[in-house]
């Protein structure tokens, strides 16, 4: 049975990169859990909250995340509460222990996180990828059999291919609603996806690459097999 946890940095990462995947898991009867390293407390991208403290912004983004989690079908969202934008400077052993504690509490078989390049070189994305990878490789998370990364341009340039891709066109209204839940991020969302009432052809696929499985790095696996293991084959 699929037991999947997602580990990201900020409220909204999950929806940008994996709304369709999360919803399909939930619909298959396996609502995933998620850990975020921050509450997104520096996320004042719209300029709407210029007089807000980090504490207030963090609360706002947690509320937005709760709404998105309902839409996506996430079973649970936990936070490490590290300072947004500065997690790369956090005490490494505390950070790592927090990730390991989350994993051993939920005991996922499959983990999904950013690639080591963060997808976009964001230092928080790179830090949580590194910590999650370290946690898996530490041997201290015995439930974990597979680690997936979000496919990135940097990985493609290295000649790597996604293990599987999900076409999210049929799920677009759900994904758009989850994006709208992250209202404080609407400028960044608009830049990436365009107007949410139109399906963005250039964002058709959510793409994932198997980075590690039972001790093997970059195992080869065909998409059908990967989806069967995740109990998602009937969806595609
Ligand atoms: Zn992010």
Q: What are the key terms here?
A:
236 residues; 40% helix; Rossmann fold; hydrolase activity, acting on carbon-nitrogen (but not peptide) bonds, in linear amides; 8 helices; GlcNAc_PI_deacetylase-related; alpha/beta; PIG-L family deacetylase; single chain; 8-stranded mixed beta sheet; binds zinc ion; 8 strands; LmbE-like_dom_sf
Question: Mean pLDDT, rounded to whole units?
Answer: 95
Portion of residues in beta strands equals 15-25%
- How many domains make up the coordinates? 1
Count of helical regions: 8
CATH topology: Rossmann fold
Helix content bin: 25-40%
Q: How big is the Rg?
A: 17 Å
CATH top level label: Alpha Beta
Protein name: PIG-L family deacetylase
GO molecular function: hydrolase activity, acting on carbon-nitrogen (but not peptide) bonds, in linear amides
